[in-house]
User: Fold this.
Amino acid sequence: MRDADFFRRWMAAAAAAVEREADRLTELDSPIGDADHGSNLLRGFTAVLAALEAEPVTAPGEVLQLAGRTLISTVGGASGPLYGTLLRRTGKALREAAEVSDKELGEALAAGVAAVAQLGGAAPGDKTMLDALVPGVAALATSYRAAAIAAENGALATVPMQARKGRASYLGERSIGHQDPGATSSALLLGALADVADPEGAR
Assistant:
């Protein structure tokens, strides 16, 4: 069973991953976006850590809902609402339980991913964060590490795609050949989850 501390450690690991990869995320965003994905997420997850430090939330769902609200209020562009929706909807699905099972977390994340798809009007294959999130969350049924690997492979698979949603879609065929930054950061989020759930398997 996973308690609030587990989810705090997940958010801390995600923040560390974003800090480590911020320059790369911005580099990926440069040719097909606004060249600010890394800096935006870094600001957002730094704010998430501060919010969790300041507010004594005691349930897994509360941790994720606070994180989601913070991202929405601090991250510019589409990333804030999309990531915020993912975490808030996941947290809401966990309700007020003090501890949640891995199965319950997987089901809640699936609800969060569905909310992201609805908000952005996107589907797998559109070259968005869903190309990492959908296979990643599906693979949670196998293991956390399988989820991280599936998400990372999903992000890599966006390279030959033509973007059909988001800022990159304005470029048409010129979006082909570039890895989607949102899918890449989504893979970091699931990679951080795997590292916290399975520290011995961390890369």
